[in-house]
Write a structure and sequence with these properties.
CATH topology: Ribbon-helix-helix fold
CATH class: Mainly Alpha
Shape: globular
CATH architecture: Orthogonal Bundle
Structural class: alpha+beta
Number of helices: 4
Largest sheet: 2 strands, antiparallel
Order of helices and strands: HEEHHH
Number of domains: 1
Strand order of the largest sheet: 1-2
Strand content: 15-25%
CATH superfamily: protein bp1543
Radius of gyration: 13 Å
Helix content: 40-55%
Number of strands: 2
Length: about 90
């Protein structure tokens, strides 16, 4: 995940994924997409499965954010070593 300065500030890219059997799209900056793939690899999960887990946590929140925001927040929390879900 060695992004150059111009790539760090790259705008979000829309990608299609499947969550719980439903197609959806998320728009994430390449930096967050790379972090998401790395987190799923560390857990031995497909990206779709990790996003589904994040989505369950998001929906359970008192004020659920949008999915892309939830992913960014989850990744930041994971980076800080404070992930809520059990691996």
């Amino acid at each position: 995940m060695d992004l150059g300065q111009s790539e760090i500030f790259h705008p979000p890219v829309k990608r299609s994924i499947t969550i719980a059997g439903h197609q959806t799209s998320i728009s994430l900056e390449p930096l967050f997409w790379d972090m998401l793939k790395a987190a799923s690899d560390r857990r031995g999960l497909p990206v779709n499965a990790l996003v589904a887990r994040i989505d369950v946590e998001r929906i359970a929140a008192a004020q659920p954010p949008g999915l892309a925001t939830a992913i960014r927040l989850w990744l930041t929390n994971d980076l800080l070593g404070k992930t809520l879900q059990a691996d």
